[in-house]
Amino acid sequence: MKTFNKTFWIIFGSFAGLILIILSFPILFTKFSWFDLDFTDTGEIGDTIGGITGPFIAIAAAILTFFAFWVQYIANETQKKALSKQENDLAQERFETKFYNQIEILKSNIDELQIGKSTKGRKGFISLFNELKFIYHVVNNHYQNNFLPNLQIEISEEARYNIAYLIFFFGIGENSTVLVRSLLTANQLLFFENAATAVQANQTLWRNERQNGNPIAVDTNELPFTLDIRYLPGNGHTSKISHYIRHLFQTVKFVHEADENVISQEMKYNYLTILRSQLSPHEQLFIYYNAISILGKPWIEPFNYIDKYCIIKSILLPLADFYLTPIDKLGQVNIDGKPLYEWTEINTRLQNI
User: Which of 282, 287, 279, 292 lies closest to 164, judged by CA?
Assistant: First the structure.
């Protein structure tokens, strides 16, 4: 029906009319004298009609042949579009299969997470985030109260945070210290060694207080921050969470780099919304603070996945209150003008009640 449409039938009718006129020539020649033809001079009647109608028939045949090619061309284009759509559907199906397999692996990584003897699964990210926050305050307090007043060496807040993150990630120990040493400048290394002693002191405090069932605490600019975890803080988590972070990042990158002829930008955002729905608020807190460390920089540079796809939209903003907050780093909306945080939307709705 798309090929033999209204336009086709108009053209076909015109040529049919032309053919009928051509076929009526013998009657016109024989019935009407106003043609004033003398067949004795022009040859047999068939030769005369053939000579007159031949060019018309040849032209009509050529034009009709052209339209035959035109119909075939339209049919070929329709077939090509159908094949292209089929190929895109198959490519999307392959993409979705891999994407949902990646989500299953992510769930498996979370289920297998175990820190110490009793901290397991998704709840482990609550302890991980609180430990990172605690270590940051310990390191920062040591800098403000001991290192800077005594040695008069300035260490930037960014460097202090990264040193705290490295202690959290690699831990305090012989092998861990070797890894951290390779990443720091001379002044940063001197501060790291000083800060490590403060973290070790809190490890001792944790052991003592844990025997009595008590948490430990560190001073902040506001209220003291209490750490109540069931494993030794500052012992490192390289083997426990590095594969989780890498897998999550590679899943986001896989979606981002999908062929836009198959997976549009809007579809990419929707797929990563599905991925984000699998992440708890404390996971998103942890992902953000990983992303602003030197170990997690690929989340933000050279392409800002966190911003583009609102990866931390369900983050609990009031808990992200140390070092560089999400609003300070990313603002309120992403590059496409979409709100970055559900928390601010909830707050706005509450104020409008």
Answer: 292
